[in-house]
Amino acid sequence: MTKVSFHILPTESQQDKYLFACKMIEKAYRSGCFCYVMTDDDKQSQLIDDLLWTFRAGSFIPHQIYTGELPELEKVILIGSLAPPENWQHTLFNLSARCPDPELKPQRILEILDNSETTKAAGRDRYRQYQQSGMTVIKHKPLKA
């Protein structure tokens, strides 16, 4: 059964949201998880790609933007707005405004929301969709971004 974790930040800053996402992605990578970061579009994918190179000095997370072609290496984080390829469906970081395809059946979905009303309203809709799909949903309030 899929476990969905909502992380609601105390700030309305999208930059803080993306930096928090980078920290969580790094944590996942360090624990051996090669996840997929789901975005709304190419622009957002590029932003996350750039941030993963620069968010912390000395940090290295192998990653690339997914354009439909499988990467040469399997031990890499993929970022994109397309459906994730099979080996990257286990853990999804959802930075997009939509729910992942329920046919994927990931083990884990991480939702990271800023505290703006627009983001929270879309998050509430996804929360209901996840619950209606029978997924286990947990809500977290991080202390800081």
CATH class membership: Alpha Beta
Look at the structure and name the CATH superfamily: DNA polymerase III subunit chi
What's the overall average pLDDT, rounded? 92
Helical residues, percent: 25-40%
- Strand order within the widest beta sheet: 3-4-2-5-6-1-7
Order of helices and strands: EHEHEEEEHE
* Major pleated sheet: 7 strands, parallel
Helix-strand layout with pairing:
Blueprint: E1 3-8, H1 14-30, E2 36-38, H2 42-54, E3 63-65, E4 77-80, E5 91-94, E6 108-113, H3 117-132, E7 136-140
Parallel strand pairs: 1-6, 1-7, 2-4, 2-5, 3-4, 5-6
Describe this structure in words.
This protein is of the alpha/beta class and about 140 residues long. It has one domain (about 5-140): Rossmann fold (3-Layer(aba) Sandwich). Helices cover about 30% and strands about 20% of the residues. It contains three helices and seven strands; from the N terminus they run E-H-E-H-E-E-E-E-H-E. The chain has helices at about 15-30, 40-55, 115-130; strands spanning about 5-10, 35-40, 65, 75-80, 90-95, 110-115, 135-140. Strands 3-4-2-5-6-1-7 form a seven-stranded parallel β-sheet, with helices on both faces. The longest helix is centred in the first third of the chain and has 17 residues, at about 15-30. The protein is globular and about 35 Å long.
